[in-house]
UniProtKB/TrEMBL annotation:
Lineage: Eukaryota, Metazoa, Chordata, Craniata, Vertebrata
Superkingdom of the source species: Eukaryota
Organism whose genome encodes this protein: Atractosteus spatula
Name recorded for this polypeptide: SCND3 protein
């Protein structure tokens, strides 16, 4: 979903562990859902797959997309330079 992708992007940009959302925010999301939509809707959040797997998958997809975009741009360029830093 679009919301899930935005959450994954924020977690990736923060450079934090993928479980950061599950610890403080998932219980809060459940409570807010319970208040706004009722117990039945809140229980549906328990059916979600483990977030760490979903976030990991989405971050890998974003990285692959960035890589393929970069490779495509290099292929379309007439010339390019590559700078390697020494160790």
């Amino acid at each position: 979903t679009e919301t899930g992708k935005k959450v994954s992007l924020r977690i990736a940009k923060a450079g934090k562990p993928h479980t950061i959302f599950e610890e403080p925010y998932l219980p809060l999301a459940k409570e807010l859902t319970r208040i706004m939509c009722g117990e039945k809707s809140a229980k549906q959040l328990d059916l979600l797959p483990p977030l760490k797997d979903t976030v990991t998958h989405r971050i890998i997809e974003m990285a692959d997309d960035i890589k393929s975009t970069l490779v495509e741009r290099v292929k379309m360029s007439r010339c390019f330079s590559l700078q390697l830093d020494g160790l």
